[in-house]
Amino acid sequence: MASSYCRIGHRHPENMSQPTISIITICYNRVSDISLTLQSVANQSYKEIQYIVIDGASTDGTLDVLNSYISKISILVSERDKGIYNAMNKGLSLATGDYVLFINGGDQLYDNETIQKVFEASNGEDILYGECMFIDEKGSHLGLRTVLTNRPLPKVINKNTFLYGSNISHQSFIVKRKITSPFQEDDYKIVADLDWMIEAMSASKSYKKLDFPISKFLAGGTSSAHWKKAMNERFKLYVRHYGLLKTILAHLIIAQKSVFKKMSRR
Q1: Model pTM?
Q2: 113 and 74 housed in the same domain
Q3: Is there a contact between 216 and 111 (Cβ–Cβ < 8 Å)?
Q4: Which end of the chain is more exposed for a tag (fewer CB within 10 A), N or C?
Q5: Quick check: 105 and 217 in contact, CB under 8 A?
């Protein structure tokens, strides 16, 4: 297989009087579950979708699965990349929709009416956000993220929304393309999506909280080494956005709440 592969499919927005959305999927060697992601987008009742798939030159048969869905994909690119955020930037650079949503390999839209319901509920806001359902490898529902993490969806969003912990999943975060910025792929290897969401919230002038699930997320274990690296990156990210003093105070409050929570369970 060539090191770089691009194929244009046939799915394009049909009714330009309605909002268009670019749904972007990033994947690499996900032959076991990529079809579930593809189906969740391909089966949407809403037709004004540009579907972009960026594959990192998979070697496990993923590309064969992607090609079998080519009639449902607007743009398919398969080539080596420099990491997930480099791939997400490729997808973002190809997006032409009014809105952008990332549903990466393993993720799914909640049901076939999800995007239709999103735009029926919206009035052209800059950001639309909702719930995320955690699922296991069998697809069974484990519960809403807000319930499992005890972090309700915020009613108001702005630059400070994530100061005391992230409570919106990027799979359920739909943004007007005109206010997006590239992912800081050189600065962050794990939390660039968090940075991207904060930047979008800082640039937005309007938003709407949707009280229904937008996506499904495949829950999995995270190694302690990965977790520590993510925490270190997030601390640096918070200092950049909020300043050192506010970041330290916020982390102390988060730690205090965690201790009280553990004590209340005893």
Answers
A1: 0.90
A2: yes
A3: no
A4: C
A5: no
**How far is it, in rounded angstroms, from Cα 63 to Cα 73?**
13
Beta bridge partners, 49, equal: 21
Q: Is 170 exposed, middle or buried (0-12, 13-18, 19+ CB in 10 A)?
A: buried
Residue 252 pLDDT grade (very low, low, confident, very high; cuts 50, 70, 90)? confident
Q: How far apart are CA 42 and CA 51, in angstroms?
A: 9
Handedness of CA 59, 106, 102, 11 (dihedral sign): positive
- The answer to whether residues 80 and 197 belong to one domain is yes
Instruction: Specify whether 73 is located in the same domain as 193.
Output: yes
What tokens were used for 233? 């990156």
Q: Work out the average pLDDT over 54-80.
A: 96
Clarify whether residues 67 and 176 are in a common domain: yes
pLDDT reading at 144 higher than 70: yes
Same domain, 254 and 188: no
Residue 239 predicted with pLDDT over 80: yes
Strand 4-8 relative to strand 75-79, pairing: antiparallel
